[in-house]
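In the present case, backbone shapes were mapped to integers, as reproduced here:
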Amino acid sequence: MIRVFEPKLNRNDYISIFKTLYKNNISGSSPTVQEFEKKLADKFDSKHAVALSNGSVALDVALNLLDLNEEDEVIIPSFTIISCLSAVIRSGAKPVFCDVDPISWNMTLEDVKNKISNKTRVVLMVHTYGLTAEAHKIKEFCTSNSIILIEDAAEAHGQIIDDKKCGSFGDMSTFSFYANKHITTGEGGAILSNNSEYAKKARQLINLDFNNNLRFQHNNLYWNHRMSGLQAALGISQIDNLDKVITKKIKQGGYYDQLLSNSSDLVSVQPKNFEGVQNHYWVFGILLKKEGIRDKMIKNLLIEGVETRPFFWPLHLQKALPQKFVIKGLELKVSENLGRNGLYIPIGEHVSKSDQNKIIEKLFYQIKNC
């Protein structure tokens, strides 16, 4: 079975973890976590980094810092993971769904402008699958209109737009370090910001509102979302390996492109470069031109020994969406097409060049016979 992804740890990862074990720095209050936070902030050009338990929590905490209410609107792309929707709803605000670009599969400024209103308080800008949202344009628009920008860079570790790093565009930026990310701590996440008040409040929110002066007297009923020292130790070494991971992914993505170069009548993929941004291939996504065969293909490929994943299902069509946020007749055609007909195939250290050949051969067979 060729898995869609398998984490790959190296010698330096083991050494970093063993050093931390030897020093007993295993808790969420250990200096290893602080070291990881500093390294994160430096790597992604931010003044502050707050490490926490996962990327979904990072979104929750970021939105909770803003004291949103039911009158406040948060614009989010419909084509993204449900964590984004869940965080908006739990914050008390109203999600407003926008479509994405048909080539990059990411949010554009035009998509945002189509949904803007005098109640828009936040834009949640997500970078998806390997390319990026129109970050410079969206940031400038938000700044000019006093709208808070939260940047979800969970899938964009190391991604660069015009010499500016993803994770440095938002008033707050969120990261996930799940096992399939370019930097992993197994589980884990972070919030990055240049705003010291956001960082200070985030630390309270994820640490039960502990006060060093009055240790067990609390003003708020907050959460424990801390990252452990062992996770942070893995993250420290993983940051050092980021460029190698990206180089490998770009090489693999380029080879998949070669294998698919004469199949534009059957599939479309994200381009290698789009508006000056190089694709980092967090995943290698394929959009089928033939309608209605995707789910059958996924089952057949699994039988053939190739694990795949369907694309994100559009947020505005989720069964979990509370009825009061459902807009009858809402059409976001790009997101809907991606959700129905997209899948991604194995990529990463565990996939050899010969594996890639087999995967595409089996993919073509299924497209033609489903």
In short: The mean pLDDT is 96. The chain is about 35% helix and 15% strand.
